[in-house]
Amino acid sequence: MLQFGCRDPDLDYAPRPTAFGLVFHDAKLACVRVDRGEGSYFDLPGGAVDGDETEEQALVREFIEETGMSVRPLLRLAEASQYFRKSDGSPINNHGGFWIAEQLSLDPAVKVEIDHELVWLHPHTAAARLRHDAHAWAVTLWLRRHAS
Q1: Burial class (CB in 10 A: 0-12, 13-18, 19+), 119
Q2: Residue 40 phi, psi dihedral angles, 5° rounding
């Protein structure tokens, strides 16, 4: 299992099962710009697996909440973990799958996370700008497997 991020030995990182998605359209990758003022950042759409959800179910729910996009998970591309601190300072270790997914529809009116904005980035730009190294690695893995 690949582990990304720097672990502070003085912190207790809560494990958090997650699922993140890679959706491509017109050679661009769906990302979310999370508005935190001067601390804004880019992520892959996705997040925590809640309760008894599968990764696929969590991915579908998270895409709708963050972007208004309905997706169908197609292939689990990779698995990795990422140490990080949430915006409230809580230490978390995300652990889960990165999925290739297909866009089914897009309705921004159903999006519920108002601080998340759907943006389409070239995969190379996404790999350079995504907040988490695990996300950048997943995009790079996809790029290497689809190089011409």
Answers
A1: middle
A2: -65, 155
Q: How many CB atoms lie within 10 A of CB 69?
A: 23
* Lookup: tokens for 37: 């003022």
pLDDT, tens digit, 9 for 90 and up, residues 65-106: 999 999 999 999 999 999 999 988 999 999 999 999 999 999
Calpha distance 17→34 (Å, rounded): 20
Residue owning tokens 């963050």: 66
Do 110 and 33 touch, CB atoms closer than 8 A? no
CB 43 within 8 A of CB 117: no
Q: Which two tokens stand for residue 80?
A: 């990795």
Transcribe 104-126 into DSSP letters.
Answer: EEE-GGG---TTEEEEEE-HHHH
pTM above 0.90, yes or no: yes
CA 33 to chain CA centroid, nearest Å:
11
